[in-house]
Amino acid sequence: MCRKQKDSVESAKSFCHVRMEGKKDRTMYEEIDLDKIDIHAEPPIEEPARQYYYMAKCQEWVREFERKNGRRPFAFTQTFGCQMNARDSEKLEGILHAIGFCKAESEEADFVIYNTCTVRENANLKVYGRLGYLQTLKKKNPGMRIALCGCMMQEETVVAKIKKSYRFVDLIFGTHNIYKFTELLAQMYSDKNMVVDIWEESSQIVEELPTQRKYFFKSGVNIMFGCNNFCSYCIVPYVRGREKSREPKDILCEIDKMAKAGVSEVMLLGQNVNSYGKTLQNPQTFAQLLQSVEQIEGIRRIRFMTSHPKDLSDELIEVMAHSKKICRHLHLPLQSGSSRILQAMNRKYDKQGYLHLVEKIRAAIPDIAITTDIIVGFPGETEEDFMETMDVVETVGFDSAFTFLYSKRTGTPAAEMENQVPEAAAKERFNRLLECVQQIAAKKAQKIVHTTQEVLVESTNDHDPALVTGRLSNNLIVHFPGTEDLIGTYVNVELKECKGFYYYGEIV
Ligand code: 5AD
Ligand code: SF4
């Protein structure tokens, strides 16, 4: 590294302080004074200093834009898919905010980024549909720049299609190099050609870049990335790569900073949190991590997602049962109730195993809400197999379930299976399942009506400004009379009326 370069990194580091005191501050990062970074020096090699250098460059671009246009540029972020993507988007927004972009509420903006999902084909189709709309906007505003990132971009066929048929896209990157967003943004603004940077894999976890939280009182926290399970229908292991756990000290430090900034509820995120820590140099279990999170002052609620039944340990059940902070909610994807189909899905548990696990959990934590994911129409699924799924749904009595029509994902083993289920049969089963799931969920929700529950107030009500909306420990929603200043606080609410998936209530 040359002298000048070293100086710029050192000056960046020395201006490092945590900007966290303001209770309602949603931005979180080791704030580095970007003006102290010499953008005419060579970029540093190491991370995250390199990204801060490019943030300083992008900030200069934003200032130039402002000088020319008399206003700052607007950026719009659209997230598709799961909570992991939502968290990634907070990181993208944190960077855009740090370099001076204003947040746009629609695609009529100077910069639009779609953080895509590819878990089902529908998700891909949605993105292609929206790209058509972006093209018309770009014709009206030729200075507009369009970026695509996320899981869908890890598929070669997708990138080939965009390069060929969507030439107006300016930047494409994937899941492994999302931390390089600023560097790629700088390249995009200095380059006329489409910038494409997709990595097949990365062992690196780059921390301490800006993030902009959607809520000041709750936040997702990545505890691991990738997945090693290779369920035969699922594309995630191919687009998110091998499982990597973050070091516990980094996770705890991040949560501690969040708590000091006013976050009281955290959602620990991973594709399979139950296998957290196995690949660390000093292996640690997920249950141990939860116990450490529980010690953090200011954290009142802990949630996590997603739990693979095959790795859910007795130790975890024990820790949950004794915890005062872990929410009374477990998302435990079933996928199918047929042991034969579960084997073909490579899920590594069978119907009895799942039912036994649920029994154990309910015995230890009687008031826990259990929710699930179910796929209908997996290749080879017969009516008998489907009835096994219905049987588990009725036996367990899920508090809620996400139901999906099987979607063929090229590159996965299930896509090669011969006996694909005809769409009409799958849809018919799907409708039957949905009705059953909804009826059971409504019955379960009814059980706690007229009780008083602690609620974290999350927002004002979209339809009625006299109401606010809060969440129970079991993840259900309640609307009740209240004002904006309650947002982020905990109140006791009597559940007066059950509307199936939500309640109306009153503060007591
Ligand atoms: N088709 C339908 N649903 C799928 N899921 C994952 N892959 C597919 C697919 N190919 C569902 C699973 C998973 C949830 C996030 O998405 O149920 O738990
Ligand atoms: Fe996909 Fe299975 Fe991994 Fe979940 S555990 S992300 S369903 S491969």
Low-confidence stretches: 1-23
Number of helices: 14
Structural class computed from helices and strand pairing: alpha/beta
Please state the overall shape, judged from the principal axes of the Cα atoms: globular
Associated small molecules: 5'-deoxyadenosine, iron/sulfur cluster
Trace the largest sheet across and list its strands.
5-4-6-7-8-9
Overview of the structural elements:
This protein has helices at 3-14, 49-69, 83-98, 121-140, 156-165, 181-190, 236-240, 248-260, 286-294, 314-322, 339-344, 351-364, 383-396, 423-446; strands spanning 17-18, 27-28, 30-31, 74-79, 102-103, 111-116, 145-150, 171-173, 195-197, 211-212, 218-222, 224-225, 244-245, 265-269, 301-305, 329-331, 369-376, 400-405, 452-460, 467-472, 477-481, 490-498, 502-507. With 508 residues, the chain is α/β, with parallel strands linked by helices.
